[in-house]
Amino acid sequence: MMGRSHALSGWCAGLAVAPLVGLTSVAEVVPFAAATAGYALLPDLDHPGASASRLLGPVTGLISAAIRAFSSVLYKLTKGPRDEDSTGKHRHATHTLVAAVLLGMLTASLGDRGKWAVLAIAVAGLVLAADALGDWIVLVVLAAAGWSVFGAALPGTGAADSVQAGLTQIGGWIGVAVALGMFVHCLGDSLTRSGCPWLWPLPIRGETWYELRLPKPLRFSTGHWCERMVIVPLLTLGGVLLLPGALQAVQRLFDATSIWLAGQS
């Protein structure tokens, strides 16, 4: 899938899962969804042309090269008797549930080391998301953060106290956002013709890197018109409707419109 599609699917997944980890207000849900959107791009660090690999120029380029080298070695060491003859670089090591869980746990442990570590991880996710989706997501997150700091601060507390409380709260879910974003990326790639071996190292039909994918008539290639004209618009719509209170607002608008139309007849 395209980077934009991955980021949008991560945004939607973050909005949907946020209540399950105890996040309900806009000030809580939006930063979580933004982080999930950003880290939904992370698996493609194994591709030199991906936005994540080009984000910081030579820095992320070197990280990408190291990941590709590691993935290639891992593939050669663990491939099954029926796995294809592949370099094992793209859509391998970083495109697995194991990688998502491990990186999520690592991120959570880093978050426990201090609030500045939490802030750095969250900002990195936001930068990745903005690179794929545009600056609007930064404005949305800043608005949510501003409300959290100034609008919803408890009486007698200052902005600094609110920031500290907010970073503490982020530290509780940042690992979940990273793991969720990476896993959603894997699911998205499973919709394409190439599939995704996200169940590695579980052996399936003699393959430890078995590419899970849709039935053949339903598959599409990356950037196909189906992705651009159907999936992206649906994800965009979902990304709006899943915002806290959005469905209720739509329902109220529908009810008001129905009443107005009834009055015109």
TrEMBL record:
Which species is the source of this protein? Answer: Kribbella solani
- Leader peptide range in chain numbering: none
Q: Supply the name of the protein.
A: Membrane-bound metal-dependent hydrolase YbcI (DUF457 family)
**Keyword annotations for this protein?**
Hydrolase, Membrane, Transmembrane, Transmembrane helix
Q: Name one Pfam family in it.
A: YdjM
Alphabetically, the GO molecular function entries are: hydrolase activity
Quote the InterPro entries the UniProt record gives.
Answer: YdjM-like
The domain of life is Bacteria
